[in-house]
Amino acid sequence: MAERYEEWVAAAPAPPLRPFIERYCGYRLTGFPPALHRGLPSRHMTFVVSIGDDIDVVAQTDPAQSPRRYGCVLSGLQASAALISHGGDQEGVAVELTPLGSRALFGMPPGELWNVSVELADVVGAVGRELWELLQDTAGWEERFAVCDAVLGRLAGDGGPAPELRFAWEAVVASGGEVSVRDLADETGWSRQHLARRFRGEFGLTPKLAARVVRFERARQMLRLSPPFVSIAQVAAVCGYYDQAHLNRDFAALAGCTPTELLAGDVPSVQDRPGGPGPSLPHDHNHEHDHHHNRGLAVPHLP
Predict the structure, then answer these.
(1) Residue 149 domain-assigned?
(2) Among 108, 113, 119, 171, which is least packed, fewest CB within 10 Å?
(3) Among 98, 61, 70, 95, which Cα is nearest to 256's?
(4) 205 φ, ψ (degrees, to nearest 5)
(5) Containing H/E element for 16?
(6) Integer Cα distance of 35 and 1 in angstroms
(7) Could you report the per-residue pLDDT of 183-201, keeping only the tens digit for each?
(8) pTM > 0.85: yes or no
(9) pLDDT digits (tens, 9 = 90+) for 161-181
């Protein structure tokens, strides 16, 4: 088997896209054994452009949706895991898209894509296919990110959720999923019932479930990046769970497995790349660039 190789590059998008996209993450993985990995719930919509082989989703988050292969997959928020098959080598660009940008880029609230995956071209037409085609023929991460800026910049327009919903979403994320629905309602001036109804209509899930997803994502990343002497119980306490059993129940519901099982995989994931971008590159890109050899990082997920 070929030597395992990982390459990760992160970059901030062009300024006009920053209200919608937190960063781009380029990935190239070679030499891994063929396997299944999990596409997990997070605070971002799934938006991944494959370079080379298609993304093969063999089990969707909604069991009623048929398996499908995607060149450029776009999904709304989700509260369960998808299963993705890969042949050992993977390459592409993941776009960390906030649901606050769905209306501006796609002309629809993210709730319309709740728990479903689509080919980008099925939503935006030829522009989606153009993005995929251009990235197949572009070498170099900076050049690839510039393609994303150019194509997605043409999609960007006006539009967004009501200010109360924007505030509520940003508050859930900023709190790490620990803000209460009562506090959100008090701040927006809406009743809890009205907030839950409007929030679900916009994003596809209630504020309470959104907080669970954000808290789960925080705990998963902390478990992934913490040194071995940090226990699951300690992570549970830091992330606002009542106890480790509470964390385990959320992992079972949202990931379909225990924290230990999730960490036992050997395929690294874009979702588990740490924090924000690093030092500046030309063209106003920020850049985080890692190479790893002969490493079996322990988190399965859609790259």
Answers:
(1) yes
(2) 108
(3) 61
(4) -140, 160
(5) none
(6) 14
(7) 999 999 999 999 999 999 9
(8) yes
(9) 999 999 999 999 999 999 999
